[in-house]
Design a protein that fits this description.
alpha/beta, two-stranded antiparallel sheet, single chain
Length: 260
C-alpha cells in the first residue's frame, strides 16, 4: 500500500490510553491528524498525554477517566458522545492486563476476576456501546488488541490465555455479525513487548518484571502502535482481519531465543 494518510480528521477512541500500547497508539493517531477520545483510569497520566499531544501535534483531544469494567460509566460516556454528535470512526479496544502467574490450581480469584472483567467484559462493554453508532452510519472500524497468548497456551498463562483466546473468538464472531455492513473488525495480536505489562502481572515486582525481557530485544509500544496505524489506515475496501506481530527472537508465546 502507498503511504497515504487516510485518517486525517477521523474520530478515534482509545481505551487504556494512559500508558503502554494505548499512549503510543494515541500518539500515532494524533500525528496523523485524528481527533482523539482517550479513556483510562489514571487522570494524571491522561492529562499529561493530552497536553503533550496538543503541544506536539495541535491535536483535538478529549479525555474521560473511567474503568471499562464499569458498564454504567461506559454507557454514560457513549451517550455523551452521541449527544454531542461525535461520531466514532475508529475504536481501539486496548484496555487489558495480565495479573498473576500461577498454575491453575494455585491461582488467585482476584487475579482471575481482574483479567476476565477487563480483558473480556470490558471489551464487550465498550464495543456494545460504541459499535451501534458505527452500524447506524454504516462506517467505522473496531481494532481489538489481542495477543499471541490467544493462539497458543503457555505455562502459567491459563486465565490470561483464556481471555485472549476469547478476544480472538469475539473478533471473528463480531466480524461475522457485521456481514453486510461496511464496518471493519480487526485485531492486532502482539508477542513479547516491554511495557508495564509484566510489572502489573507481577504486582509491582520490578526485578521479576525486567527478567522477562532478558537476553532478547522485545517489541516496543511504538512497534505495536505502528501495526495498529497500518491496520486502521488501510483503504476502505481492505480489512486486515488479524495482524500478529512478534519480536524476531520470538516464534510462539513461549519460544524465545535468549542469546544474552
Amino acid at each position: 500500500m502507498e503511504n497515504t494518510n487516510r485518517l486525517k480528521g477521523k474520530n478515534v477512541i482509545v481505551t487504556g490510553a494512559s500508558a503502554g500500547f494505548g499512549a503510543a497508539i494515541a500518539r500515532s493517531f494524533a500525528a496523523y491528524g485524528c481527533a482523539l477520545e482517550l479513556w483510562a483510569r489514571r487522570r494524571d497520566r491522561l492529562v499529561s498525554l493530552r497536553d503533550e499531544l496538543q503541544r506536539t501535534h495541535d491535536a483535538k483531544v478529549s479525555l474521560r477517566v473511567l474503568d471499562v469494567r464499569d458498564r454504567g460509566a461506559v454507557a454514560s460516556a457513549a451517550e455523551d458522545l452521541r449527544s454531542a454528535g461525535w461520531a466514532p470512526d475508529v475504536l481501539v479496544n486496548n484496555a487489558g492486563l495480565a495479573s498473576g502467574f500461577d498454575p491453575i490450581h494455585e491461582g488467585d480469584y482476584a487475579d482471575w476476576d481482574a483479567m476476565i472483567d477487563t480483558n473480556l467484559k470490558g471489551l464487550l462493554n465498550v464495543t456494545r456501546e460504541i459499535l451501534p453508532m458505527m452500524v447506524e452510519r454504516d462506517a467505522g472500524h473496531v481494532i481489538n488488541i489481542g495477543s499471541v497468548a490467544g493462539y497458543m497456551a503457555y505455562p502459567k498463562g491459563n486465565v490470561y490465555n483464556a481471555t485472549k483466546f476469547a478476544v480472538r473468538g469475539l473478533t471473528e464472531a463480531m466480524a461475522v455479525d457485521l456481514f453486510g455492513t461496511r464496518v471493519r473488525m480487526s485485531s492486532v495480536d502482539p508477542g513479547a513487548a516491554e511495557t508495564e505489562f509484566s510489572l502489573v502481572r507481577f504486582h509491582g515486582d520490578d526485578d521479576r518484571a525486567r527478567k522477562v525481557y532478558d537476553g532478547f530485544q522485545p517489541l516496543t509500544a511504538q512497534d505495536v502502535a505502528d501495526a495498529v496505524l497500518y491496520v486502521a489506515n488501510a483503504p476502505a475496501h481492505v480489512n486486515v482481519s488479524k495482524l500478529v506481530i512478534m519480536p524476531t527472537a520470538q516464534r510462539n508465546p513461549y519460544l524465545i531465543d535468549r542469546k544474552g
